[in-house]
Amino acid sequence: MDAQSLDAAEVAERLRLPVEQAHKVRLLGDVPPAEPRLPSRAAAPELLRRLSVAPDDAAEILDGWPSAEWPAELRWLLERAVATVRADLGGADWLVPGPWLPRDRGPAWRHFYVYVYLALVEDALAYHARHGIPEAVSWATLADLGRNLAIDRRMNGEGWPVMLEWLTLHVRGGLYELGRLQYQRARPRIALDELDLHIPRSGPLTPQACDESLRWARDFFPRYFPQENYRYVTCGSWLLDPALAEYLPEDSNIVRFQRRFEPMPGEEEDADEEFVRFVYGTLTTPLDGLPTRTVLQRAGVAHLRAGRHWRNVTGRIALRP
């Protein structure tokens, strides 16, 4: 069946989604379809390699590669999810491009939002080029796809759900990876003079690596986004929870990272799930089964066993005097 002959209600019915997710499909009914601009299946392996996608993940992605044999409802959804993200090129706020899809229906369903991402790589590179951003930064930023797919594989599918919104930042030009750290451009509803700092799972959080990344950010944004006047880098994370200093040595990378930030007043959110996801790579293992190989892992278990909670704490760093 031709995807264009379907309306949103028919697509929602064919997808057999829960009510809340079916509603998100219906909201896409007024979105004009967009050409996904995916590479050919033959050219896809090279693109996946450049995006640091591991061979096992690449094989699954290729198995479900969009084609004329795809169900019409998936083709309909792909065209509108791509259109939704492309319409906000240059945006830096969180964006939900479509409904959650059942992952157990096969690779086309499991990797649907990977195809959305891949269909927008060309747009992201063109946006970067218009701003003069070096290709090395572009590819390092976009390669976060491979990192997150690898995390999801290690977590047996528990690592991917948060990526539905997260990966739209990369392909809209809203986030950049500069060495060890990632920086999200200003969100108008939050603050126009602040970059949000994110810490990917990409190795030790050494002072040297953080110094280099922050120096890079101080130069990068005035150079490539001169109309945006950033004064601060802001981070909200369990990594800034002062309770960590009760367990970790003073010269640990995490404690030294915390000391960079000026604490900001505000409500501290529960971060137990984020802590467990990041530190242990699981969301289903009982507390008694969590590994305790590292000082941080032992600290996490001891803290939770004591009936305490990890908190997301917000702090900021001045980008200039």
From TrEMBL:
<dbReference type="InterPro" id="IPR041273">
    <property type="entry name" value="NAT_N"/>
</dbReference>
<dbReference type="InterPro" id="IPR041644">
    <property type="entry name" value="GNAT_C"/>
</dbReference>
<feature type="domain" description="N-acyltransferase N-terminal">
    <location>
        <begin position="44"/>
        <end position="173"/>
    </location>
</feature>
<protein>
    <recommendedName>
        <fullName>DUF5596 domain-containing protein</fullName>
    </recommendedName>
</protein>
<dbReference type="Pfam" id="PF18082">
    <property type="entry name" value="NAT_N"/>
</dbReference>
<dbReference type="Pfam" id="PF18164">
    <property type="entry name" value="GNAT_C"/>
</dbReference>
<feature type="domain" description="GNAT-like C-terminal">
    <location>
        <begin position="175"/>
        <end position="316"/>
    </location>
</feature>
